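note to self — DONT lose this again. spent like an hour looking for the file last time. sequence + predicted structure for the chain T wanted, 418 res
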Amino acid sequence: MVHGMPDFPLSSRRLNVDHVSKLEQLMPQTSFEEIATDFLLANPEESAYFLDSNHLRVRVGLFRDQFMPEDKNAFPAYAVKANSNEHVLRILNEEGINHFDCATPTEIRMMNGINQKSINFYNNPLKRNCDIVDAAHMGVKHFTVQTHDEIQKVFMSTYGLIKPEDLEIAVRLQTLNNAAAINLSTKFGASVPEVTSMFEHIRSLGMVPGISVHTGSQNSDPKTFHTAIEKMMDVIKREGRVNTLNVGGGIPVNYCGDREYDIGYYIQVINESLRGIIGEIFDNDSYKLIIEPGRSMVADSIKLVVPVLSREKRGYMDSIYIHDGIFGSFNPADTPNVEAAFKVLRQEGNQIIEVPMDDLQKFEVFGCSCDSADKLPNKMLPKDVKAGDFILHETAGAYTSACRSDFNGYSEHSWVIY
């Protein structure tokens, strides 16, 4: 099934399939190679995301079934910002994910449209008053903060809409981590003394306190989750129990082939850190334990294929230009995605083959926009890569389509669901 390319000529075994679940029933064994061959032969100058729905369902099941499985109050809350494609969100909903980490009212509205019973956490620590009001009207009762001003803002903006005792206010605790590719605590989170003071403020207004952390994006050290949970426990022991404990995201994805991260092991470390302390954390039986997979939920379920537009010699290095770039799928703010290894696909007759990665050289990689800043990090690629080939990015599910802009008027890529 292709979205954004209505004239894509499907082969006879794929006719009249217009829904993800029907597609899976008709083609349970269909591979990326088959799907990519059909699409690229018919559309050799188009870029596309290829969503492996079965792989995504398996990954969802890993978080759903392995995060504190013995605790009925433990939930994965998918970080919508990682990928808000409707097909992705509907698969998550079908697989039982009904808690969502949202950063804007737009994301909250999107999740309510997919499941009116979804439980949406407004976890952006910095919000406009009007956005808090909007979220409250959409049924949000959980907000994250990192300052006293933000606590007061939530209290005043929800006044008359939500009873204070029904509001959960999670304070984000700063957890600096040099093992993360992106250390989020340089921007987000409060120190331990600030968090303890904010707990008092929340309780003084009649609201219910919670606590959250984020150990950093693409966190290469699972032990930091244990350290962060211990740090949260120290605050709770001093300042009283909470209603929600959120261990955040940060579980890494295998982008470049130089590391093999085991998501199950990360979840195991988190579980072992939580077990045995539950009774010390919560005041009642309606508590929530939350983990926030974003990148680790979707990254390796989606592949990106983009055409090579040109090969040139510029100075001392060969260069290629691709039908994507930093204003599209490769926002330079997301280091792990931008630095990911690429492969090369090529048409040979009526087949699309993968070019062997055994005779390589370094290439400059430029995007397709008319802007000199549109350059990706240099990549090691087959020496004979040429115009008409395709670049394959195998872990393109997170912070790619979600970060693209309309700069230069380039349209969004097609989506192929299989």
